[in-house]
Amino acid sequence: MFSLTPFTLLDYPHRTACIVWFAGCNMRCLYCYNPDIVLGKGKINFNEVLTFLKTRKGLLDGVVLSGGECTLHKKIIDFIKEIKAMGFAVKIDTNGSNPKILNSLIRDQLIDYVALDYKSLPHTFKKLTQSGLFSEFQETLSLLIQSNIPFEVRTTFHSSLITESDFIQMIKYLESQNFEGNYYVQHFMNNVPTLSNLDNSTKEIQLKNFSTPKIKVIFRE
């Protein structure tokens, strides 16, 4: 694991939580805010995290597993089992690239909430993420839609990387996959270190209403 955030009220809906940040990722998103985590090595081990969690029983409701990409960790299932045994709810943040692991976590009732990053449409996915993992994302989305696990879909929006036309098509794609619910759009934060040198992003897109009868588009700062 790369690091640990001991307390958050923002990252797990309706729960107090901590965040475990996993080093490493199989994508290299141009706008990634966490280049040190994506490109870095682990700084704390599994037992250190467990020791911390033992001191937070009764104080925290949940644990967020983020990164990087937490589902790439070779012992992620065993790790989550130990967290659940302590009585914590578990949320994972994922880019959707590991549907096999996600399916196991859902089947064994090891996760309670998922935040799925929806990077872009297929024709821009490889450029934006430097990966060819859209089909895996699509499989993950399908798994979540068919499951009973509460989840959210979210997109980081950069005006130079996603056009308004692209964004409309992204919403239509979600509808075509039978997704219903809230679709969260996070504005790119200008003037922060990222994996690529990007121009500043604008926020004009949030002046319009993109919601549909089935999908409510919610902009986040």
The amount of beta strand, in percent, is 15-25%
CATH architecture: Alpha-Beta Barrel
CATH class: Alpha Beta
Percent range of helical residues: 25-40%
Global morphology = globular
Spatial sequence of strands, sheet with the most strands:
1-2-3-4-5-6-7-8
Mean pLDDT: 96
State the order of secondary-structure elements, H for helix, E for strand.
EEHHEHEHEHHEHEE
CATH topology: TIM Barrel
> What's the number of structural domains?
1
How is the main sheet built? 8 strands, mixed
Oligomer: single chain
Low-pLDDT segments, ≥5 res:
none
Explain this structure to me?
By secondary structure, the protein is α/β, with parallel strands linked by helices. It has a single domain (3-220), classed as Aldolase class I (TIM Barrel, Alpha-Beta Barrel), CATH 3.20.20.70. It is built from seven helices and eight strands; from the N terminus they run E-E-H-H-E-H-E-H-E-H-H-E-H-E-E. An eight-stranded mixed sheet has the order 1-2-3-4-5-6-7-8. Helix 4 links the parallel strand 4 (89-94) and strand 5. Helix 4 packs parallel to helix 6 (134-146).
Topology (SSEs and partners):
Blueprint: E1 3-8, E2 17-22, H1 35-39, H2 46-54, E3 62-67, H3 76-85, E4 89-94, H4 99-107, E5 113-117, H5 122-129, H6 134-146, E6 151-157, H7 164-176, E7 181-187, E8 215-220
Parallel strand pairs: 2-3, 3-4, 4-5, 5-6, 6-7, 7-8
Antiparallel strand pairs: 1-2
Helix pairs in contact: 4-6
